[in-house]
């Protein structure tokens, strides 16, 4: 499984022959990429805030996935074909090509549209992406990545996502102010029991500018064995080779 961070909460994830783009927003200081550079099979959105869906309209040939409220709003705004929109919900798993995507909740607000004038999109989401179908039987041959979305610390990370969905790696927001900061994100890494953790959602705007060494130090202060990978913008890793 190949992962690329394009700044903020924007990730490219390749699972087999399936290319997934999460929360496309390329107007951020960590990336040199532009929206037309990508041709994803699937676009997943965690919620309706502009800094997570700004470039969705570039990908009307892709399959759009997310909660029914958010993808319905985006499909109307950008004229997605009905057959290219997959609305699913918290706890549900959908097979997208070679990837199995399980939606979990994220604790955050979810206004939509410019100025958030559209109705609320309901619950926000995070995604657990795996190359095998999630089961209650541990599969040591599977590779699983958790994109937490915009969220605060949740006990579900300790009680559900970690022990049952078993991510190998997690991308966690660390910028504080709008999401978890370094301390709570480090606790999340510990609760999830992941081997690898990637900070995201920081340094985009002045309120979320941080020193990522704080996150590294906070993870070290927990009992977590997670290796912290502070990626440069547009840097890729092969999760199977870490």
From TrEMBL:
Its taxonomic placement starts with:
Archaea, Methanobacteriati, Methanobacteriota, Stenosarchaea group, Halobacteria
Q: Which InterPro entries match?
A: Metallo-B-lactamas, RibonucZ/Hydroxyglut_hydro, UPF0173, UPF0173_UPF0282_UlaG_hydrolase
**Record flagged with keyword Hydrolase:** yes
User: What keywords would UniProt list here?
Assistant: Hydrolase
Q: Which residues form the Metallo-beta-lactamase domain?
A: 7-201
Q: A Gene Ontology molecular-function term?
A: hydrolase activity
Recorded family membership: Belongs to the UPF0173 family.
Note whether Hydrolase occurs among the keywords: yes
What NCBIfam families does this protein's entry cite?
PRK00685.1 (NF001911)
Domain of life per record: Archaea
Q: Which PANTHER family match?
A: UPF0173 METAL-DEPENDENT HYDROLASE MJ1163, UPF0173 METAL-DEPENDENT HYDROLASE MJ1163-RELATED
* Source organism: Halorientalis regularis
Protein name per Swiss-Prot or TrEMBL: UPF0173 metal-dependent hydrolase SAMN05216218_101438
